[in-house]
Every structure is written in structure tokens, then in C-alpha cells.
Request: fold
Amino acid sequence: MPRPSLKDQRSKEIRAAFARCVARFGLDGATLEHVAEEAGVSRPSVRHFVGNREDLIDALAAHVQQDYQAKMETLFAWLPQTGRIEALIEFMFAPSVVSSSEDVALAQALMAAADRYPSVAAPLKSWIMEFDQLIQNELSAHAPNASPADVAGASFGILSLYFNIDALSQLGLPERYGAAAKTAALNLIANLEDASDGAD
Amino acid sequence: MPRPSLKDQRSKEIRAAFARCVARFGLDGATLEHVAEEAGVSRPSVRHFVGNREDLIDALAAHVQQDYQAKMETLFAWLPQTGRIEALIEFMFAPSVVSSSEDVALAQALMAAADRYPSVAAPLKSWIMEFDQLIQNELSAHAPNASPADVAGASFGILSLYFNIDALSQLGLPERYGAAAKTAALNLIANLEDASDGAD
DNA sequence: CTATTTATGGTCATAATTGACAATAAATAG
DNA sequence: CTATTTATTGTCAATTATGACCATAAATAG
Reply:
């Protein structure tokens, strides 16, 4: 009887538009007008399909908690059986990915606002900690004799490089910094192998 | 004849208050009311002593360009003659510094807003690039035989760890991440020594 | 075709932020 | 003491963001 509901579809689109606006303007700078224009709908429609600003933020937090984690796990599931670490580094620090990763920009914006918007802190924290754990798993499998402390350090270093190369690229840093990030990541891994070789 | 001017003193205080507010609330979240309250003056006084919002941002950019660079150079000048790298890492990743470094939080907030406020991008960029250059100098002196690419990677890695440990600490990550950051930094340096030893 | 539900847009009220001007108090040179 | 400059506060207008309600159009079941 009723007109078919577009709520699921529109909600996704609007939430995605909100994510893009937050990545570009920050959480405080992403006004509902921005979101509406980015989503191609009117501002009252944003309210109709998702709700008020708080609802948008909650939806974004749920997005991080669910879709981000799923995307991350898909990435690790798609790594080849051999050369997993190399493939992972290649993916994380490929120039095309680095310059077009809205996920990282969104994560940066949410991190910057985490203390003001507590509802986004928990999903972000669990996502990052799980990301770290997956990298640690790969590193441990790659260098079984490396110490847990070194594995934890290398994983955190790779994550930091991944986040920072995106943040700093917004400043218009020279191209060589992208190469430096990849070099550092590979050296952190090589150091694990050296240490484990030496410990044998 | 005139009443003595407090402009220099008050300008500094207000600019420092603005810096603290930006570090805490982000550039968009730092309202003039916040700044006035943080500085202990009225909002019209903020306008009287520094100017409008744009003037505040320009003053902050100048602050980064001048005081930040001076503070950074003072740090490197104070490093001991021997064990300079170790002292630098100790300083950058000491728990007390990491948890109380408003400079890094401010830098993060400005980086996040660099694309929206172009006037802050250039000072930030030059500060970071000079910071990177000073670290590279130390690393090159410490491991003369290391390749320039590895030195650049290690320097960028240390900078990334330095920035990220602060950003992530706002999420309430466990204490061990601080230790992981320091471990990663030291391993990046150790890798330079190993490579240079091997190249001899 | 009719009724019901949803989509979409219009509009107003309210709060927050900012810019700007006016007014008063204070301090010092002469 | 007087004049001049500065400090400080009060206040209002304009802009913007947001929330909320209402009206209209559209689509589908029956």
C-alpha cells in the first residue's frame, strides 16, 4: 500500500556524505548544509532520513564500528598466502591509496574530536586496536622469533606511518615523504627479521 | 602622556590562550568566547588586543613559524655532545612529555585544518620539514654510513610516531602503546647502525 | 480511482557566533 | 589638575546553524 521506502538507501548515501564532509571539514566544520549538498538532497531530507546532528554522529560511529572493521578484515583476508607482509605494505603505502584514502582522513578528523564527542572514541579505539592486532599477527607469523615488544613497536610504527603520511600530505609535503614512509615501514619489518635471525 | 600599553603582554597571553583552545577544541571549535575565558579577559578585549578571528589565526600561524622553530632549535642545541640521539628519543617519548605536549596537539589541530585555512599550512609545513631535517642531521651523524633513503625513512618514522602517540593517547589507548612507540623509534635507529655496519 | 504511506521541499523560531560601535574607567605626561 | 591615550566593559546587529513543523507531490495496494 505505501510508497516504497528509500530509507535504507538514502540513509547510506547521507551517512557516506557526512563521512566525506567530516573528512574534509572536520567534525565541527561539517554542517548539515554541507552534508545535504554533498548527498544531493535538501537539509530537511537529511533530518527525515537520518535525524538530527547527534543521530548523524551516532550513525557515523556505527559506520566506523561495522563497515570499517569489515573492510579491514576483508583486506587481511585477501592478502596472498605468501608475501603477505609485502602485499600489506604495498597496499597501505601505495601512492594512489595514500592520496585518495578518505578513510584515514575521516579517522584523523574523528581522532581530533574524540575528546569532545565521546560516542565516537570507543568505536575508533576498538578499530585501531584491532587493526594493530591484525598487523601484529602478520608480523609474528613473518618473524616468529621476534620479541613481542619489537612486534608491538613495529606494528604501532606502521600504523603511525599510515596515519601520518595522509595527514602530512595535506600540507603539500614533497613526494619523497611518501617514499620515506614506505622505507621506514619496511625497515621496521627488516629489523624484526634481523633480530630473530640473531636470536637463533 | 598616555596610559601604559599592555598590548604586547596581553597579545601574548591571548595568543597562548587561543593556542590552548585550538589544541583542545580544534580550530573550528575554538570560539572567541573560549579564548576570552581561557585568557581571563572579556571578548571585546580579545578584539581590542589582537583583532578579529582572522587576525587571531594569523597570529597563531606566526607563533608556529617563530616560537615553534625557536623552541625546536633550542631543544637540539641543548642535546649533549654524546648520546644525542638517545637523549632526543628520551625527550620525545618520555611519558610525561607525551601526555602533556600541547605543542603536538596544536600541530595536529592545525594540520587537520590546513586545507581550510591556507595561511597556517605554510608555517606548519616549514616547521615540520625543518624538524625532519634536524632529525636527519642527527641520524646521519650517528650512523654516517646509512643510506640517505634509510635516514629519511627513520626520520619520518620518528616524526610520525611522535605525532601519533599524542593523537592516539586521546582515545585512551593502553599504556603499552607509549612503550611501543619508543621501541619502534629505537629500532628505526638501530636499523641504521646495522645497515651501516653491514655496508662497511 | 481512492486511501495510505513516504518523499521532498518550504518556512519559521531559536540559539550561537561574530563583528562593530559606544561608553566608562584608569593612568600618565605636562 | 587637565588632557590624552589606553584598558575594559556593555550592547546591538548580522550571519549562520540547527530544530521543528507544515504542505505538497509521489507511489502503491486494494
